[in-house]
Amino acid sequence: MSKAGVLPPWLVLDPLLRGWLLEDVGRGDRTTNGLLAADVTLGSAKWIAKAPGVIAGLPIAARVFQLLNEKVSFVTTVDEGAFCEPGQVVAKIHGSLDALLMGERVALNLAMGLSGIATLTNTYVEKIADLPARLVDTRKTTPGLRLLEKYATAVGGATNHRMGLDDAVMIKDNHIAAAGGIGKAITRIRAQIPYTLTIEVETETIEQVKEALEYKADIIMLDNMPVDLMRQAVQLIRQQDNGVKIEASGNVTLETIRAVAETGVDYISSSAPITQSKWLDLSMKIE
Q1: What confidence tens digit (pLDDT) does each residue in 139-167 have?
Q2: What's the DSSP call for residue 89?
């Protein structure tokens, strides 16, 4: 059940990983340095899943160890995005023990957090797997971890929404209030942005949907609408402009996501796979 997820280049990720290693190692690992001579004692370890779930973050974990010692071998025994059962070995590691012990916590923390996101994301995705609607993530991410958390949702089967404020235009309720209306907001912004950027507008009523259509929004978000009202809005948009993409958002849960998808929307955005996920328990055992 391997899912698509594309990591940013190491040129982008390495400074983050180095920073997190520096946070943990500090001025030196007192325990490991007191026991072992650096780069001298070799050893092996296994990573074992202690709970069922979707594995994500193994390439990142491998990089953590290799930043400490480039000769460390990190061999995965499952594919990224695979579903694992308790007791299953997901990776085998070999190299200098000081690197294995110093990198253990950072590597595991990242993989457990990302695997938890991928697991919950996949649970949401499976609820609507037979319907055309696609689950997308949001910008509700942990500061400093957005690139990796959004990578994990992709591994879990979701589609990434914009990565940041510079990716696309999203006119939300506060923007509408500041501009004095949807039409004014779209008109001002369209005159200033590159032609390649799309404009998405958040709507809460049928009247707002009509205004967004009138001013040619590329994507219309139906925010916190009851399902019946959402269905009416979808029908209206399809009748007037079938090229407009429709996104549903607002308090989407595992209990409601299927009903939302059945209204005919193209995308369903939810922060829950990231904000409500639980770390997947993994452990490292030195052999």
Answers
A1: 999 999 999 999 999 999 999 999 999 99
A2: E
| 242 Cβ contact list (under 8 Å, min separation 6) | none
Residue 191 DSSP symbol: T
Annotated catalytic residues are 105, 140, 172, 202, 223
- The type of residue at 142 is T
Backbone phi, then psi, for 93, in 5-degree steps? -125, 140
Count of beta carbons in the 10 Å neighbourhood of residue 30: 9
Nearest-angstrom CA–CA distance, 221 and 203 = 6
Supply the pLDDT for residue 1: 45
Q: Which helix (DSSP H) or strand (DSSP E) does residue 134 occupy?
A: strand 134-136
Question: 143, 156, 122: which is closest to 257 by C-alpha?
Answer: 122
Radius of gyration for the chain, computed over Cα atoms and rounded to the nearest angstrom: 23
Instruction: Give buried/exposed letters for 2-24 (b at 16+ CB in 10 A, else e).
Output: ebebebeeeeebeebbeebbeee
At 217, give phi and psi (nearest 5°): -65, 145
d(CA 267, CA 249) in angstroms, rounded, equals 9
